Amino acid sequence: MKRKLIALAVFIAVITGVCFAFNFESVSQHYAEKAPKHTKIGNVTISIRCDKILEHQSDLSKSLKDSNVIPKNGIILQKTTVSLFQNDTVYDILNRITKERKIQIETSGAETSAGSTLYVRGIDYIYEMSCGSTSGWIYFVNEKKANVGASDYCPKNGDDILWAFSCKENDYE
Amino acid sequence: MNNAFSKFHPLSSFIYFVCVIGFAVFTQHPIIRGIGLISGICFFILLNERNVNKELAFILMFFFIIAITNPLFFHDGKTVLFFLHGNAITLESIIAGISMSVMMISAVFWLWCFGIIFTCEKVMYLFSKISPKISLIISMIMRFIPLLKDRHKQTQGCQKAMGLYTSDKLTDRVKSAVRIFSILVTYALEHSLETETAMRARGFSSKKRTSGLTYSFKKRDSLLLAICLTLSLALLFGAVSEKLQFYYYPSLSINASYSTSVMYLLLFFILAFMPVFIEIKEAAMWKYSLSKI
Predict the structure, then answer these.
(1) Chain A neighbors of B257, CB-CB under 8 A
(2) Distance (Å, whole) CA B139 – CA B131
(3) Which candidate from A22, A29, A69 shows the least CB-CB separation from B250?
(4) What pTM, to 2 d.p., does this model score?
(5) Model confidence over A72-131: pLDDT tens digits?
(6) Judgement on whether residues B109 and B151 belong to the same structural domain of the protein
(7) What structural domains does chain A harbor?
(8) Which domain holds residue B171?
(9) Residues in A touching B88 (Cβ below 8 Å)
(10) Do B226 and B183 sit in the same domain of this protein?
(11) Sign of the C-alpha dihedral computed for residues B64, B67, B73 and B78 taken in this order
(12) Which of A46, B18, B83, B250 could disulfide-link A125, Cβ–Cβ 3.0 to 4.6 Å?
């Protein structure tokens, strides 16, 4: 009896601990606008495209083909002007605009600055390797590929960011 | 062994098991996995050979762990339930997790049934012509673990009866466990050496091996084999023509083009529930003939 009570207490403690340690949010809470932490230092433009998929339809995974998530013109987000805050990285900007437009996004790895391992696995239900084994999301700043991860690159005022779904190597060169 | 299905010829029942387990494990369709699980459990209950109350808790835990971990690691899917640490927990990934655990547990149940039906003699009978040594080793290994378990129980009982380690203290329990383990290891080594000598003495590997039991291939065996192979071929055709495909991401693929798969689901239902029907039919016949006396 005593043992069972102790086990129950431990179980409840673990559950409450998990509830406090993890940050639960409802869908509306997640998409609600949050006040920016830093001051605004300018504007950048951002666009999200997957038009290379239209050229490689045969490689596209069947689940995506059937579910009509690929836009007809291959543009998920038209070129949009967004504000740039201090210490913003390319990932911060992507995260903010996808939240605002309610575009699905999944990342893996830690987001902390300097040598982070953040990797964007999928945007708008289009995931890495869903259009051939070499496909995935890459980003360009002023039409140039950057050599660092998206949460390490801090763009300047007036930069143009493009997130593109590349199917083959050097698709967008 | 008082069940109808184990009276079939080893070849036809082996092919039957391979087909059912293959389809239940390698198709993505949740309904096929569900049918596989339910039929496996029904068959297992009808066989009524093993007491699995202890394993059942482990299986349930296994089920929940897989069902919970999938949504924690896969955030794909259109129906978002809530966000955890900024990651979406979606209905699709929860369903995919449950479906995966259903598949694994159905495989466990079907393999238990396989273990009950497929005794060592049947393994020997079926594979001794292809590779006598490997089949003997496999059947010996399959025998070895239950043998060791029994031996463990015996040793423990012996030690208790001798009055050793009867207190409930932790140190005593650990001591007895270590001692019994060493006894078991010694026993296993000695046993394998003895087996080897005994096998040599009886002329193992001097001539081609024959099986002690013979099974004749009767009409009903060929009937079972024919039904099983036709259903499997039809299902295979369905799988190749993508009728049995099912996608969980980004949204569950339940739409008009998949309604044709109902026929294939029915075929799998017949295939998976065949032993259950056979068992029930035999039991009913037994009852009926008893009532006539």
Answers:
(1) 66
(2) 12
(3) A69
(4) 0.82
(5) 898 999 999 999 999 889 999 999 999 999 999 998 887 765 667 889 999 999 999 998
(6) no
(7) 37-166 (2.170.130.30)
(8) 131-201
(9) 30, 104, 106
(10) no
(11) negative
(12) B250
